[in-house]
Design goal:
Layout (H helix, E strand, L loop, with lengths): L2 H24 L7 H12 L1 E4 L2 E4 H32 L5 H21 L2 H21 L8
Antiparallel strand pairs: 1-2
Amino acid sequence: MKPTILLRVASILTLIHAVLHTIGGVFGKPKNGSDEVAVLETMKAHQFLVMGSSRTYWDFFFGYGLILSICLLVEAVLFWQLGEIAKSQPKLIRPILAAFILAFCGTALIAGRYFFLGPTITEVLIAGCLAGAYVTAGAKRVAGS
């Protein structure tokens, strides 16, 4: 398989991940009953000063969720653009891919430990596509990616 195709697949998977994370994770409603609602309400209720600003744990939870959504969206766009570069200069993208492979492998480990199976599998699939693109971008002959 050619690096461009693998990067397109990684881009689409990352975009899907961004959308589902945003809808289900950031803007999702509690689905696990009154205990979950109580935790969320407690996170929202207690404010404390952080570097001169009054914040709650909910502010951090929600804000970091939005940051992740934006990062995933940017990564999806970047992977698509790297697919274009791979057509003419495949070896040029290899160091960038190596960094993202390590990042997605690390994220998969964290997702497996602290979240659940869905994001873990998605991160592994993205890392796999990126690793495939890395290998094929280093092949001696990459024609018409």
